[in-house]
Amino acid sequence: MGTLKPDLLKTRQHFEILDGLRGVAAIVVVIFHFMEIVYTDPATNFAGHGFLAVDFFFCLSGFVIAYAYGGDRVAKLGVGEFFKSRLIRLHPLVVLGSVLGLLAFLFDPFTPTAAAYSTGQTAVLFITSALLIPYAIVNERYNNLFNLNAPSWSLFWEYVANMFYGLVLWRLDKRVLTVLLAFAAAGLGIVAYRAGNLVGGWSSGTFWDGGARVAYSFLAGMIVYRFNLIIRNKLGFVGIGLLLLAGLLMPYFKYNWAVELGIVVLYFPLLLSLGAGATLSTGLKGICNFSGRISYPLYMTHYMVMWIFAGYYARYKPGTGELALIICVSLPVLIGIAYLSLRYFDEPLRKYLTEKRKAKTNPPI
User: Fold this and answer.
1) Which of 81, 297, 327, 351 shows a CA-CA span of 20 to 30 A to 305?
2) In three state form, how does the secondary structure of 206-217 look?
3) Of 19, 31, 302, 56, residue with least CA distance to 198
4) Whole-angstrom Cα distance, residue 8 to residue 102?
5) Structure confidence by residue, pLDDT tens digits, 39-68
6) Distance in angstroms (rounded) separating the CA atoms of residues 264 and 216
């Protein structure tokens, strides 16, 4: 049995503004999911580009992974231990999101979807969701790859990107990464032109679109770190946050696919460079810290409410005022659920697993 140096398992310093931006993006995703249920035509939805937050997440992830596991850290840690680190960081909330999704599936008061599925089928739905195995069989839920917790599709591709990083990407020099980025940009361009947008990846019919989205943005984040493309500036969290919102809440255009492609290929890496180089005022550090901490829990726990809301909307067709009230009340409630999930499930479980791992790899003499 090998031993691990304690410093190899330590989490490196966070970029606080990037943490804050991650939280802003997660909140926009929640609003987008509410709004797309009501406004099925994205052109009429003020948050119709909110789904691009996922591409921003992928770009952030590439930067953060390259930063946290740069140099020869993966070699020192070992590929197996790298994968364990990522599992401990990501998977507890994958399981929790599946549990919450199962409860919403079984006890949805407005749409009795579960009645059409046997106990065995429901069990398979949960197992595949908890293990991040795509399994699109629920027609009533638009054949999502993950019918219990729809946002898990992006976690599937996040895992794929992490696997490629641990096995190959960390070894490659900057020139090779640049060539790969160019190929990924071409692939993403083909997807955008063919589909007319970059919203794919969540369903069986758009499965490979998710691969194109993560391939470009993850590599772009790595490139920003590897080439040290950090732009020192004084825009701060508020300034860069507004720039991010401008990209996520922009209107639809005639050549919408090209605009979305430009946002992902050029604008998000630029925001990443600015966010990594901006100065954060002391008064906003707490907000950025909290925003970053609840971003992933919010993303992975909110969709149980979306399924219930979809059933409510289909049955009662509430007016604009009632919809606004539902969303305004639900958003802080979902943030509260995310915080409770983080505070009383995710963080304690990750701490426990990390301590067990250290004890196993560094037994007492």
Assistant:
1) 351
2) HHHHHHHHHHHH
3) 56
4) 37
5) 988 888 999 999 999 999 999 999 999 999
6) 9
